TrEMBL record:
Protein name: Alcohol dehydrogenase catalytic domain-containing protein
Pfam families from the UniProt entry: ADH_N, ADH_zinc_N
Reported cofactor(s): Zn(2+)
Native source organism of the sequence: Leucobacter weissii
PROSITE patterns: ADH_ZINC
Family: Belongs to the zinc-containing alcohol dehydrogenase family.
Limits of the Enoyl reductase (ER) domain: 12-343
SMART domains, per the entry: PKS_ER
Keywords: Metal-binding, Oxidoreductase, Zinc
Entry's Gene Ontology molecular function annotations: oxidoreductase activity; zinc ion binding
Tagged with keyword Lipoprotein: no
Transmembrane segment boundaries: none
């Protein structure tokens, strides 16, 4: 079958047409992959950057971790799904045996395996995955939107991690890639009083503005002064989300939130970022939290409900739909004027 395989610990990945069919274990489901969205992490894996190398891949491995598809076969011990079910996949595969797993923190499993890095992923016509990572899509949610839920779930988790502090609040979002944009969208949907975004790229700035954010340029605007002047009585925004991964971003956010405000970090900076503990954490009383992936399974429950209700739409995120053999072009698009680039391993569906 067709697949994109990372075979060697070096730059690149190969589009192949002769990969053997996946083996379906007793507790696995076999999916015909409908859509596999391309993530910035896939570009890192392709380019083999230091942060990609830090994932300790099992090679060779089929790339792709933002996946939706239809069940075409179930292992003999599978209990939750049947042939024909439409699923989105959680990409983090917990062990359900370690300490965090045993106390309900499976999102932080000490033995976590990741689809597309340690288990064959979704840049393939078919993929076999443990049934434990399957999430049934509501009937009204399309398979292509299903492939966006993994990354949108990061945005949902970040807001949940703030204690849903966006409600009635002035919100600051640093970085307007797909996850940052969904943080903006969800903040407004969940009742933010205002959203300020920080983004230098003109294409992304326009999208953030169209969602309802006031957009500042980190290189030419005084972000801290703007946030303090929004409500001088409060002295800054109530909650801030760091999605850009730029090492210089966090200090600005810590200056821009009010006393006792919340900061949630999502982007992974490539180097350690110093924090002024005395000024920001102790005296200012900021609560700083981080996010990696989604909360299992409250994120999926919340996001599914919002999509099913029709109040949340994610389809606007998709700017490019490509065949699987255009994988390298998809990687190139990520650095240009694109939002979500989605691969369709069994062909791009006709759109009416
Ligand atoms: Zn990803
Ligand atoms: Zn575990």
């Amino acid at each position: 079958m067709k697949a994109v395989v990372k075979s060697r610990a070096e730059h690149g990945a190969d589009f192949v047409t002769d990969l053997p069919e996946p083996e379906v274990g007793a507790t696995d489901v076999l999916l015909e992959v409908a859509a596999a969205s391309v993530c910035g992490t896939d570009r890192e894996l392709y380019e083999w950057t230091p942060s990609a190398q830090a994932f300790n891949l099992r090679l060779p491995n089929v790339l792709g971790h933002e996946i939706s598809g239809t069940v075409i076969e179930v292992g003999k011990d599978v209990t939750r799904f049947e042939v024909g079910d439409r699923l989105a996949l959680e990409s983090h595969v917990p062990c359900y045996r370690c300490y965090p797993c045993s106390v309900g923190d499976a999102h932080n499993c000490t033995n976590m395996l990741l689809l597309g890095m340690h288990i064959d992923g979704g840049f393939a016509e078919r993929t076999a995955v443990p049934e434990s990572v399957g999430v049934k899509l509501p009937d009204s949610v399309s398979l292509e939107v299903g492939s966006l839920m993994e990354s949108a779930g990061v945005a949902w988790t970040a807001i949940a991690r703030s204690g849903f502090a966006v409600n009635g609040a002035n919100v600051l979002v640093s970085g307007c890639g797909p996850v940052g944009l969904v943080v903006i969208q969800l903040s407004i949907l969940l009742g933010a009083a205002s959203v300020v975004a920080i983004e230098p790229n003109p294409y992304r700035r326009r999208i953030a503005e169209s969602l309802g954010a006031t957009v500042l340029d980190p290189f030419s605007d005084d972000v801290v002064a703007h946030c303090r002047n929004l409500n001088p009585w409060r002295g800054g925004v109530d909650v801030a989300f760091e999605v850009s991964a730029a090492p210089s971003a966090l200090p600005t956010l810590l200056e821009s939130v009010r006393r006792e405000g919340d900061v949630v970090t999502i982007g992974h900076p490539s180097s350690a970022v110093p924090i002024d503990i005395a000024a920001h954490i102790n005296k200012k009383g900021i609560t700083l939290r981080g996010v990696f992936g989604r909360r299992l399974w409250s994120t999926w429950e919340g996001l599914s409900q919002m999509l099913e209700s029709g109040r949340l739409d994610l389809s606007w995120l998709i700017t490019h739909r490509l065949e699987l053999d255009k994988f390298e072009h998809a990687i190139e698009l990520l650095t240009g004027d694109a939002n979500k680039v989605v691969l369709f391993p069994n062909g791009v569906p006709a759109r009416g």
